[in-house]
Design goal:
Strand order of the largest sheet: 1-2
CATH architecture of the largest domain: Orthogonal Bundle
CATH topology of the largest domain: Cytochrome Bc1 Complex, Chain D, domain 2
Number of strands: 6
Distance between the termini: 63 Å
Bound molecules: heme C
Number of domains: 2
CATH class of the largest domain: Mainly Alpha
Helix content: 40-55%
Order of helices and strands: HHEHHEHHHEEHEEHH
């Protein structure tokens, strides 16, 4: 049996090695307690993403409460697709139309940060580059042949791909995508754009687990309680054993 496994592994190994090296993800620092960053992220999500993407596991009202957004402000500025605060955050686009236009339906993003990790969302939003062969004229470093148009192009500008020529074991030379050069024609500096996508990533990290900030706070109380309880138990033990020794 073991021999057979080795054989299979030996046969499959060259195939594995032939798969292009993936570009490593960029790390993002987010802070679930930074309410202002979350508010900016929510605003930017509603303006730039909610036309196509839903947050179907989150209600407007819950978001407003967690992010300390007054209801009138919520209704006026953030509820672009519905009227009632108790509604779930759904995109305006009917799924059938989305499939017709993009080939795939834009995924729901409520849980994306848990599913793919926040570094992935951040990298994905920074990974678009010009590619004339694609329908929308862009491709993505982290999601090859992406079906999403680059809706933030006016902010970041459009990056250009950087290729490196590599020669594999059998002597074939090919071009491998290794990175991008900074975008041109955007309205933001690279630092501003980083901050912009950090806020959206922070917000999507919040939607993936709205209770997280509260859970952490509760955790601190639990630890304090346990510490206090330990002292009391220790004193009690000393008291009990006082007469035995
Ligand atoms: C015009 C419609 C449209 C808008 C606006 C849009 N997206 Fe998308 N998005 C898509 C489509 C279509 C896909 C599916 C891409 C695919 O599977 O290739 C997608 C996929 C994604 C994915 C998942 C990528 C993956 O690996 O599957 C993320 C994350 C994402 N979008 C984030 C965003 C964010 C954040 C915004 C706002 C800044 C945004 N999108 C705005 C259409 C859109």
């Amino acid at each position: 049996m073991l021999k057979r496994l080795w054989l299979i592994a030996a046969v499959l190994l060259p195939f594995g090695a032939a798969v292009a090296q993936e570009v490593p993800l960029q790390h993002v620092r987010t802070n679930i307690n930074d309410i202002q960053s979350l508010q900016r992220g929510a605003r930017d999500f509603m303006n730039y993403c909610s036309g196509c993407h839903s947050l179907r596991y989150l209600r407007y009202e819950r978001m407003a409460k967690d992010l300390q957004i007054p209801l009138p402000l919520l209704k006026k500025n953030l509820m672009l697709t519905s009227k009632k605060p108790l509604d779930h955050i759904l995109s305006a686009m009917p799924p059938a139309d989305a499939v017709k236009w993009f080939g795939v339906a834009p995924p729901d993003l409520t849980l994306m940060a848990r599913y793919m990790g926040k570094d992935y969302i951040y990298s994905f939003l920074k990974g678009f580059y010009a590619d004339k062969s694609r329908l929308w004229g862009v491709n993505n470093l982290y999601k090859p042949n992406v079906a999403m148009p680059f809706v933030l192009a006016t902010l970041q500008g459009v990056q250009k791909p950087v290729y490196k020529s590599v020669t594999d074991a059998s002597g074939h030379t090919r071009m491998e995508l290794v990175g991008v050069t900074p975008g041109t024609g955007g309205s933001m500096t690279p630092a501003q754009y980083d901050e912009f996508v950090t806020d959206i990533t922070n917000f999507l990290n919040y939607t993936a687990e709205p209770i997280k900030a509260e859970r952490r706070k509760l955790g601190v109380y639990v630890m304090l309680f346990l510490a206090l309880f330990f002292v009391l138990t220790y004193l009690l033990k000393k008291e009990y054993w006082k007469d035995v020794h």
